[in-house]
Amino acid sequence: MDDQNLKDKQRELADDQMIEQAFKEVLDIYVASRHRKKVDIITKAFNFARQAHKGVRRLSGEPYIMHPIAVARIAVEEMGLGSTSICAALLHDVVEDTDYTVEDISNIFGEKIAQIVDGLTKISGGIFGDKASAQAENFKKLLLTMSDDIRVILIKICDRLHNMRTLQSQPANKQYKIAGETLYIYAPLANRLGLNKIKTELEDLSFRYEHPEEYDYIKGKLADTQAQRDVLFENFTAPIRAALDKMGIKYDLKARVKSPYSIWNKMQNKHVTFDEIYDILAVRIIYTPKERSEEINECFKIYVAISQIYKSHPDRLRDWVNHPKANGYQALHVTLMSKQGKWIEVQIRSDHMDEVAEQGFAAHWKYKEQGLESSVETVDEDSELNNWLSTIKEILDDPQPDAMDFLDTIKLNLFASEIFVFTPKGEIKTMPAQCTALDFAFQIHTFLGSHCIGAKVNHKLVPLSHKLQSGDQVEILSSKSQHVQASWINFVFTAKAKQKIMAILRRDNRELQKRGEQILDEWLRKNELEMTTPVLNKLCDLHEAKKHEDLFLMLGKRSVLLGDKDLDELRERKTDQNGGWRKFVPFLKKGDNKEGKKPQLFVVGEGFNKKKPVVINEENTSQYIFPTCCHAIPGDDIMGYIDNKNRIEIHRRDCSVASKLKASFGNRILDAKWDMHKVMFFDATIELRGIDRKGMLREISEVISDKLDVNMHRITISSEDGIFDGTIEIRVHDRSEVSVIMDELKKIEDLKEVLQIL
C-alpha cells in the first residue's frame, strides 16, 4: 500500500510539473505578443479551472486541465487572441463539467468572459424535439452567441483543433462522428473566417481518421516525391530570386505543398491517380513593402517581373489583392509555365496579407490598431465578417424545424468561392459563385426578393434563375403582384435566399394547413366520423401524403378533394371488439393473409454496445440496410448509422449523406468493418470515354470477360463525332477487383478515361 501511495504521490508531482510548465509556456507566448498585459486575470482563470477539474483525467490519461491549457495556447499562439479569449478558453469546460454556473463565472471574471463561456457550454433539450440532433442544437446556440461575440466561434475552433489532435484515444465510432462533424462544419467555418492553416489541419486530421489507408498512401507518395519537388522548386525559383534581388525587394520564397486531404479530394472528384495531379507544388512570394502605402503597387511590380521570366496562363490570373475574398484573404495568384513543361502556381502576398491568410480576422484586428495598447478583439462595423454574421443572425431568427435542413442552411452560407457583382449605381457586392439573379435580389432586401419577377444583367433581360458571373451589373425588376413560388427553392444558391423563401412558404403553408384541417373536420363530421390518428393515417396513405400536415396542406390548396372513395375506404375498416380501429399494416395487400417475405433486419436493442464495430459477413448482409446514396461494397471504408427505427444503415465514410449524419446525429454513428471471403458478388459501375475505333468494344470485352474472368452485367456505349462514352456494370467481390479491372482497361489504346461511379 505504501508503494502505491508513493507512486500516486510521484505521479501527482509529475502532473503538477507538467501542468505548471504548460501554463508557463502559454503565459510566455502571451507576454511576447502585442496585447495589453493582463497576466493576473489569466493566472486567476488558470487556478480556478485547475481547481474545478482537479482529479479528472481525459481518455488519454493526462490531467483534464491540460486540454483547456492547450486550447488557450492555440488561441494566443495560432490565432493571436488576447486575455479575454485566453481566460474563456481556460474556463470553457468548467460550467459543463463541474458544479460551477455561468453566474459564478460572471461574478468572479466579469460578464464578457461569462458570456463567451456560456456560448461554449453544450445544452440539453431544444427546438428540434425528441428525435433532435444534439449537435445541431449546440451548434445553433454557438452561432447565437457568436453573432454577438465572434470570439465564441474562434475558441470553439481552437477546442475542436485540440480534440482532433488528440482523437487517437477515442473509440472508432466517436472518431468518425467527430471527424465527420469537423469536415462538415468546422473546417468550412475556419475557412470562412480566414483561418487557412487551421482549416487545412482540421481537414487532414479528419481525413486521417476516416480513411487511414488512403491518408498513409498519400503521405508516403508525398515523402517519395519530396526530392523531385525540391529540385523543381530550386530550378524554378532561381531566376525569380535573381530578378527580385535586382529590384531590391525584401522577400521570402516558400514552397507550398498541397495537403493530403486536398490531393485525395482531387483524386476522387477528377477520378485521377496521385501521379496525374500536377499542382501539388505551388510557390509563395512573401514580400515586405518599403512603404505600406505602396503594398499593392509592389505586388503588381513583382507580377510583371516574373511574367517576363516565364509565360503565364492567360485564364489563371486571380486578383484577390484589389478584390479580397469575403474571409479577408488577399493575394495575387498567377500560373506560370516552368522550363520543365509543368504549370506552377505562384502566390504573391505581402507579409501583412500572409498573416491574414494564416490567422484570418484575428490578424485583421491587430493591423487595425497598429500602435495598440488595448486589446484588439474588435471588428469593424462595415467589415465583410459583420455582413456574414448578420446573415447568420437572420437564419437563426427563423430556424428550420429540421436539424439536417438547419445545418445545411448554415453550411450553404460558408461559401469559399466568391464573385463580384455590381449594382446599377456601381456598388460592388460579394456573392458566392453559382448564385442567381434571385439570390442577388434577396441579398439586397427580402421584399425585393419575394416580389422579384426578373432582372437585367448587363442591360439584358434575364429570368430569376440566371446564374451571375463576376463583373456582372445587375438590376432587379419587381412587381407587387408577384408572390414567392415553391419552385424557387430549386435554383437559389445562397443560405439567405433559401431561408427567406422557406420562411415565407412555411408561413403561407401554415395558413393553408389550418384551412385544410377545417375542411377535413367539417367533412368527417358531416359523415359521422372523427378525426383520429388511424383515420388520418389511412387518408395519408390513400393520397400519398407523408405526414398529417402534408394532407392538410393538400386539402387547403384544393389539390385533393375528399369524396365517396375516401368514405368507402374508411368505412371498410372494421372496428375491433373494443370499438377501436384495427391497426393498419402497410405490408398487407388485399387478400393477403400473411406478410410478404422480407429479409429480417437487425434491430438495435437496449444492451447494444455502440463502441464495438459492426462486422459484416456473408451470413448477415441481409440484416443491414445498404442505401443507394453511396452503394458501399467490400473494400470501402464504411460506418454504420442507427436510423429512427433502430435499424442499421451501412454507408461509405465519404458519402455525402453520411457526412450530414455524422455532423447531425453523432450518437447514432457506429464503426463497421467487412469480413468477406470473395463468395458474394456486388454490383459496380465503370464509366469509359475514348476515341471510337474499330474493335474497341471487342478489346474491352476481352479484358473484362476473358482476361479477368469477370461477369459483365450490362454494357451501354454511345458514339458521336469519333468520341465514345459508355458504362459497364460488372459483378465483383470487392473494391480491389474494380481497381484491377480499371488498371487493365487503362492499358487499351485510345481508351482515354476510365472512371469508377460510386
Automatic annotation (TrEMBL):
GO terms for biological process: guanosine tetraphosphate metabolic process. Pathway: Purine metabolism. It holds the Pfam family TGS. Residues 64-164 form the HD domain. Keywords: Coiled coil, Hydrolase. GO terms for molecular function: hydrolase activity. Residues 417-478 form the TGS domain. Signal peptide: none annotated. PROSITE patterns: ACT, HD, TGS. Residues 685-758 form the ACT domain. GO terms for cellular component: plasma membrane. Residues 495-522 form a coiled coil. SMART domains: HDc, RelA_SpoT. SUPFAM superfamilies: ACT-like, HD-domain/PDEase-like, Nucleotidyltransferase, TGS-like. InterPro entries: ACT-like_dom_sf, ACT_dom, Beta-grasp_dom_sf, HD/PDEase_dom, HD_domain, NT_sf, RelA/Spo_fam, RelA_SpoT. Belongs to the relA/spoT family. In eubacteria ppGpp (guanosine 3'-diphosphate 5'-diphosphate) is a mediator of the stringent response that coordinates a variety of cellular activities in response to changes in nutritional abundance. This is Bifunctional (P)ppGpp synthetase/guanosine-3',5'-bis(Diphosphate) 3'-pyrophosphohydrolase.
